[in-house]
């Protein structure tokens, strides 16, 4: 077993509540994830990519098989603590609160995770700088930011409690090619320089080309 392995998906299958008995979205999935690497999970619409992220993040729990974080079965640990401590989530639509400023969105994440920080505003600015935004963005309302700037804030927010795993659901889907490259550089730096495990669900060939490992989900009806 690799000493860097942080996450293991073992024989995982999932079907919707109203699906037929043999109609699975995911069937017998086996993946391993290590610290220090960027992973891309690709597949056609309906292949279960976003569902898989929901399972990894503990948002969906009705599956067969096992998912292990640091050799601990997700079915046997406190999932709220897991989500607020060990994994950060980045969404395609950013999921920022529009009535808050950039820094307030990041600070709110610190409050929810109960991370102990002496000066949260300073920490928020530091996180923004780590994703390429200077202090002048701190007091701007989210709706005054471009898509690329909002995604940088979303990444900074996901880092506010220093998780080991970053889950990103189509994080560059709404961005142009140049901005996508900039966001990918941030993700690669998080993996290669800060030793995080970055898992990206994507349709983008560019994202796959920049990943260290690519897993492909096939629609179960195609198998």
Features:
five-stranded parallel β-sheet, alpha/beta, four-stranded antiparallel β-sheet, 32% helix, 223 residues, Rossmann fold, globular
N-to-C series of helices and strands: EEEHEEHEHHHEHEHE
Helix-residue proportion: 25-40%
Multimer state:
single chain
Largest sheet data: 5 strands, parallel
How far the N terminus sits from the C terminus, by CA atoms, comes to 30 Å
Determine the number of helices (DSSP H or I, runs of at least 4 residues).
7
Molecular structure report:
Strands 6-7-8-3-9 form a 5-stranded parallel beta sheet. Strands 2-1-4-5 form a 4-stranded antiparallel beta sheet, with helices on one face. The protein starts with a strand and ends in a 7-residue tail after the last strand. The chain contains 7 helices and 9 strands. The chain has a single domain, classed as Rossmann fold (3-Layer(aba) Sandwich), CATH 3.40.50. The chain is an alpha/beta fold and 223 residues long. The model has no long low-confidence stretch (mean pLDDT 92).
């Amino acid at each position: 077993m690799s000493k860097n392995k942080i996450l293991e998906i073992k024989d995982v299958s999932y079907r919707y509540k109203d699906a037929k008995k043999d109609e699975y979205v995911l069937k017998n999935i086996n993946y391993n994830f290590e610290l220090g690497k960027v992973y891309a999970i690709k597949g056609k619409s309906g292949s279960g990519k976003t569902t898989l992220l929901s399972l990894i993040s503990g948002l969906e729990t009705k599956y067969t098989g096992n998912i292990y974080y640091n050799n601990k079965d997700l079915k046997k640990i406190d999932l709220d603590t897991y989500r607020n401590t060990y994994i950060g989530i980045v969404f395609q639509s950013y999921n920022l609160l529009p009535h808050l400023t950039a820094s307030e969105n990041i600070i709110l994440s610190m409050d929810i995770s109960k991370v102990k920080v002496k000066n949260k505003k300073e920490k928020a600015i530091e996180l923004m700088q780590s994703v390429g935004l200077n202090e002048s963005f701190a007091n701007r309302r989210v709706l005054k930011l471009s898509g690329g700037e909002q995604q940088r804030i979303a990444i900074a927010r996901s880092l506010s409690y220093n998780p080991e795993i970053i889950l990103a659901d189509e994080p560059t889907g709404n961005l142009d090619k140049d901005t996508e490259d900039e966001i990918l550089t941030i993700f690669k730096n998080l993996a290669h320089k800060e030793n995080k495990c970055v898992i990206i669900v994507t349709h983008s060939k560019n994202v796959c080309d920049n990943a260290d490992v690519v897993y492909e989900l096939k629609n179960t009806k195609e198998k």
